[in-house]
Amino acid sequence: MFKKVFVFILLITVTFFIAQERLNLRVAYQMEVNFNSTDQVTTLPKVDCYLYVQDGVSKFDMYFEKAEKLYPGQFYPNHVSVYKDFNKNEMYGRAIGYKNDGYVIKDSLNNIEWKLQDSIRIIGGRSCKLATTHWRDFDWEAWYDEDIPISEGPYKLNGLPGLILAAKAKSCSNIIYNFNLIDVNFRKDSLKKYIFYPFVNPEFKLIDYATFYADISKSTLNNLKNNYLRSKESDVSNDVITGKSCSSSTTFDFCFCYP
Predict the structure, then answer these.
(1) Could you tell me if 84 and 158 are in contact, meaning their C-beta atoms sit under 8 angstroms apart?
(2) For the sheet containing 57-63, what is the strand order?
(3) 174-177: long-range contacts at Cβ-Cβ below 8 A with a sequence spacing of 24 or more?
(4) pTM, whole model, 2 decimals?
(5) In terms of C-beta distances under 8 Å and separation of at least 24 residues, what long-range contacts does 37-45 make, across chains too?
(6) Angle at Cα 90 formed by Cα 85 and Cα 95, nearest 5°?
(7) Domains along the chain?
(8) Which of 157, 215, 229, 254 is spaced 20 to 30 Å from 19 by Cα?
(9) pLDDT in tens, 229-254
(10) What percent of the chain clears pLDDT 70, i.e. is strictly above it?
């Protein structure tokens, strides 16, 4: 009996270390964007994205500069990266469009309150479970694979008991972002050439998320009010809606959301 128990424990230990060794990851996604526009389009704009994970650190790259060439006027022509350090509970990303793009947002990890659902879906031949949340004025769906026990995913998503293979986000302005899996690649070689802190420009300034959001949402709301006043030359206090993390105008049908 003791020998059987010992062999069982040994098998579990070996399996654990093999699994850990496999968790150098390169995951390819394609983000599809539905702007819910009245314009007739044959295909929805798509952005190639890659997630690299190793030693508790990751980098998520979004190649907007390539997508902008294929879909002119649809995207900022920027390369966007999100850098996560789970060892320090820190996350960093550019504040695109904020004060001449000179700021980097320092954010925290594991602050998403997920609700685990019973739904199951096969993605890339893998059985995935569904989790949902309303986070920073976006409605999120995430499909995660518990057989890849790493709490990571596309963009800023994290905090689930498995790798997120697909995700959907609906903004307060009804724009829908779908992160679709292309492939998962377990790597034995080091991914350090891909995983590096990308915001070393000495001109970059750090700003925490709360300060950034309070500043830019106030500015957005003021612009809405000023635009409305210029067009109507009247008080618009009854036509401006504000929420915890969203500012919108019933007249201009515009909403500011920034996850």
Answers:
(1) yes
(2) 115-123, 126-135, 138-145, 163-170, 176-186, 25-34, 46-54, 57-63, 79-85, 90-94, 103-108, 205-208
(3) 174/36, 175/33, 175/34, 175/35, 175/36, 176/33, 176/34, 176/36, 177/31, 177/32, 177/33, 177/34
(4) 0.80
(5) 45/70, 45/71, 45/74, 45/75
(6) 110
(7) 20-208 (2.50.20.10), 219-258 (no CATH)
(8) 157
(9) 555 555 545 555 555 445 554 444 44
(10) 74
DSSP secondary structure letter of residue 65 = H
> Could you tell me the two tokens for 24?
């150098």
State how far the Cα of 238 lies from the Cα of 242, in Å rounded to an integer.
11
Count of positions (residues) in the chain: 259
Q: Reduce the DSSP state of residue 64 to 3 states and report it.
A: helix
Q: Which two tokens stand for residue 125?
A: 């031949």
Q: Are strands 205-208 and 103-108 parallel, antiparallel or unpaired?
A: parallel
Of 113, 152, 155, 110, which Cα lies nearest the Cα of 131?
113
Tokens 């996604």 sit at which residue?
29
Q: Are the C-beta atoms of residues 93 and 85 closer than 8 Å to each other?
A: no
**40: its two tokens:** 């007739």
Helices marked H in the chain — which ranges? 2-21, 64-70, 209-232
Closest CA to 46 of 25, 69, 27: 69
Q: Which two tokens stand for residue 88?
A: 């320090």
212 CA to centre of own chain: 17
